[in-house]
Specification:
ABC transporter involved in vitamin B12 uptake, BtuC, cell membrane, ABC_transp_permease, 306 residues, membrane, transmembrane transporter activity
Amino acid sequence: MEVYALLFAATLNAGTVLALAALGLLINEKAGVVNLGAEGMMLCAAIAGFATVVTTGNDWLGFAAGALAGAVLAAAFGVLVIWLNTNQYATGLALSIFGVGLSAFVGINFVQAKLPERTPFNAFGLGDIPIIGPALFRQHPLVYGAMLLALGLVWFLYRTRGGLVLRAVGESPQSAHALGYPVRLIRLGAVVFGGAMCGLAGAYLSLVYTPLWVEGMVAGKGWIALALTTFATWRPGRILLGAYLFGGVTMLQFHLQAQGVQIPSQVLSMLPYLATIVVLALISRNPTWIRVNMPASLGKPYYPGS
């Protein structure tokens, strides 16, 4: 039982990276903007957060630096696609490539750096409870924060006027503009929020999930987070569940290796990406389901007054 409790704890830890990024990208896409630069933003945030903690010794400053790095890159992307009307897909890919290169350049001097020692988390002392304690109560606060964020976004999107306006911008920006809403500013705000969440995910990756800096350490998680939004049909609760599903698949490879299962390590490493392809292939079999749930203006440029 203890082995499975540790596997469950590792699943929550791995899923948090995907959940934070995917929930941010969800807000992007609810406003009608597709940002394919998640991978690059997460990498830049990972080195920003890691370098900040190595320099200052303060984890929360590291998370703030990661979120800021993601937000700044997303803001640059937003200006290009919202005001200059560049192609969203091409600009996002360019941002991803730029982030990979920039993070590798900035991180050269931090490859061998080590984070300061930290006290293990133990929520209210409940982590000492046998079996369930290590699984549920020795997680980093951001693990619980991702759960609360998902609940908060459900409330925001479907129970508040602001959420209604955001969804209206994603469905019909022309109608929202006719009603007097600043469509471009709303889209920019959504893009910056998405970037900040991707940044937070990147910082979590280098500070908690694998507390070190290695070039390219995001290793496709940004792309999986993008796929999660489609997999979850743009619903926050489903994104959270999907993130833990993919996190579990990621951890399963290590569990199987530890159990001595005779499967080539390369095949086990492919599991998260194979799961992503399989899920997207299954969803694609029902395009009507996607069209019903997808924001109508997703990926489409908006010209005020058109």
